[in-house]
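Example record

The entry below shows one chain as it appears in the dataset: sequence first, then structure tokens.
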Amino acid sequence: MNILVIDIGGTNVKFLATGQTDPRKFASGPEMTPEQMVAGVLDAAKDWQYDVISMGFPGPVLCGQPMTEPVNLGPGWMGFDFAAAFGCPVKVINDAAMQALGSYHGGKMLFLGLGTGVGTAVVMDGMLEPLELGRFHYKKHTLEYYLGARGFKRQGRKKWQRQVEQVVERLVHALKPTDVVLGGGNAKKLDPLPPGTRLGDNSFAFLGGFRLWDSTKPSECGASVSENGSEDIPPAGQAPASAS
């Protein structure tokens, strides 16, 4: 089975298919509708072969459907029929959760995605649980207000780094993970990394998308991956060394 993985972000839409090594992308932005996204992917990936699609959506997802309109994109995502638009089966998952699924090595992993917004997920004993902590009230605003891309620009790198360190410390204290992964485009700006964390990579979102179609514990509204984080990778699926 050939899989096309689409990672929708507030800045770019990135995608990669089984057997390919170099992802492709085009700009997204606050005006992009799902119709425009579908048209852009179909055009840019017209020379790739795929049977099914995994799609990382920048917002909460319940049983394969966006629960809200995305903050950083245009309207029309709730209730949109992606399978009909693409003409093949589509699995939709929160974008941070998809990257978390690709980052998983075992145990209880906390994933914190630092990009345009803030994405969070926990993978425990192979079972994925997406979270929406970016909208959690923190200090006078939300976590996303302090840790998102606008928070980075407003505060500067040093103050932003201190905010990240404080949030990570509190989440670790509350959730007791055995592994903490910091992903998203802004995670590489952390210097040094908070103690006890490791740096993720946006390319792991593609790996998570491949794993989404080969779950060892399939369920209607969830996803899972094996304990060693490798058995569920489709043999033909490839993730790039990096995705900038």
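Notes for this example: DSSP finds seven helices and 14 strands in the chain. Residues 216-220, 226-244 have pLDDT under 50 and may be disordered.
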